[in-house]
Design brief:
By secondary structure, the protein is an alpha/beta fold. Strands 1, 2, 3, 4, 5, 16, 17 and 18 form an eight-stranded mixed sheet that branches. An eight-stranded parallel sheet has the order 6-9-10-11-12-13-14-15. It has a two-stranded antiparallel sheet with strand order 7-8. The longest helix is centred in the middle third of the chain and has 17 residues. The structure holds N-(aminocarbonyl)-beta-alanine and zinc ion (2 copies).
Amino acid sequence: MSLLIKGGTVVTAEETYRADVYCAEGTIQAIGKNLKAPGGAEVVDAGEALVIPGGIDPHTHMELPFMGTVTADDFMTGPSAALAGGTTMIIDFVIPSPEQSLLEAYDTWMSNAEKAPADYSFHVAITWWSDQVKEEMGVLTRERGVNSFKHFMAYKGAIMLDDEVLLNSFDRCQELGAMATVHAENGELIYHLQNKLMAMGITGPEGHVQSRPPAVEGEATQRVIAVAGAVNAPLYVVHCSCKEALSAIATARANGQAVYGEALAQHLVIDESTHYLEDFTQAAAHVMSPPFRSKEHRDAIWGGLQSGTLQTTASDHCAFCAPQKAIGKDDFRLMPNGCGGTEDRMSVLWDQGVKTGKLTPNDFVRVTSTATAKIFNIHPRKGEIRVGADADIAIWDPNASRTVSAKTHHSNMDFNLYEGMTLTGISRATISQGKQVWDGNELRVEKGVGRYIPRPTYSSVFDRVKTYAELNAPHKVERA
Ligand code: URP
Ligand code: ZN
Ligand code: ZN
């Protein structure tokens, strides 16, 4: 199986040049001018389009049991939708129940993902602490290709962690050379405000945003940076949505701390007023955490991406349909948190980022794939157009448009956050493992061909991170 992409402009995070790209055996085999296709090779004419690394979405939740239900996209439908949008790999989350073995949960997610039509990998969440958890983190890094562990500071009474567990786990991450990742919201403060709002009779989706003001995220981000800093654990903060979180990350980075940040496409464009929509179904469909923010915060997050304070973009694809959101009809605290968007992430970033002049095409590649591949240590296999890299490629038409609708998207969701938006910048063809799986119109995905991509713990991040002992040189004072 071989494929020749003729006549496009290769765009990586670093370079832009015209070249043909020849793929065989699932990898890029040659890049150059006027390449000839061997007999039998499929030829894709890129014309005036860009040839970019397939997107990597570092934050998705396929078939996740969460808040009394299970997300509506599974490992077949979710990644298929991603492919239609130019994203060729997802990093999903294994989320063990508190007290559950991490290895057992990992096996469940591995088995769920057997049907995936595109490559995938897993972060593993720490939802409780014990010697067994500590030991299993070691097994996951050494034997299962896991190099990142997720920590939730919100969702009190379910998967929220206190500072003691954060410290224990971050210490272990540092020891193992694994990245600590975090959902930074102060769960105690949310719980307090939720109960206050309910007591005032505010039971609808507007209660969700009012119980999660920016201070909730700002405090948690600042605290978790301090906790990670105390044990010198590199930290990756998921879904940064407000200027308070951004400035905490910027300050930490300016002080030399290894802190990374992720922006969600939806936090860049959707306004907080959506939480106050009169139509319950519409307002409920927007319930996610952190919630949507005002323009001031969205501008700050754009600035974070532009300046490099934030490095990656994700979708946090966590699909729930209207009947699932209705679980919280009379009590917003019970409403499953999450929105979709893995199919639209790249188009949103092009339309609202590149077309407006905020990002260059090279920045676009960096924030949609390359930076994620580097931070999570799968570069240059992923996130790169280079001989030897996996042939995961999007042929990106910077001028073509599509109007987003739940009627035509490929997710199982009955709602789309970007409904009615006409986005310029689309994947005219998506190539996964050297095979064209999307032609701009139709998916040609194959169940089960996706591979688990192991991620070794070595990362350039850790080269420059000293251990607690190296940095602080703790010493005992001998006294008579
Ligand atoms: O509301 C969200 N983001 N749901 C998915 C779980 C999480 O917090 O990332
Ligand atoms: Zn989260
Ligand atoms: Zn999430």
